[in-house]
Amino acid sequence: MVAVAPPCAPYTDGLLTRIDGPASEAVPGDTGWVTFGYTGQDLTSVTYADGSGYRYKVHDTYAHKLTEVRDRVGASGHLLKSWD
Predict the structure, then answer these.
(1) CA 46, 47, 53: angle at the middle one, nearest 5?
(2) Which of the residues 25, 44, 64, 66 has an alpha carbon 20 to 30 A from that of 36?
(3) Tens digits of residue pLDDT in 19-66
(4) What are phi and psi of 50, to 5 degrees?
(5) Which three-class secondary structure state does DSSP give residue 74?
(6) CB of 58 closer than 8 Å to CB of 41
């Protein structure tokens, strides 16, 4: 038996890139239920099938230090929380 990779592997470089499930009215076809975006090893976005989600900003100097969370409403999103 030959192993066949799924059409969209959910991991890239060890990081989870999407969560898939059965198609439904809310999640048509193979769009994925949730997709994750990264800058380097830092999670920078979570996007749901309906286009909603969150954007995360990390500190420029200190690796992995979360400094801001915004929703995905509009071009820049609403600021939900920030830290120094």
Answers:
(1) 80
(2) 25
(3) 887 777 767 666 678 999 999 889 999 998 888 999 999 987 877 889
(4) -85, 5
(5) coil
(6) no
Cα–Cα dist 36/48, whole Å: 9
Q: How far apart are CA 83 and CA 65, in angstroms?
A: 9
pLDDT bucket at 4, cuts 50 / 70 / 90: very low
User: Cα–Cα distances in Å, from 46 out to 3, 4, 53, 57, 64?
Assistant: 30, 28, 5, 12, 16
Residue 9 confidence class, pLDDT cut points 50, 70, 90: low
The count of other CB atoms within 10 Å of the CB of residue 10 is 14
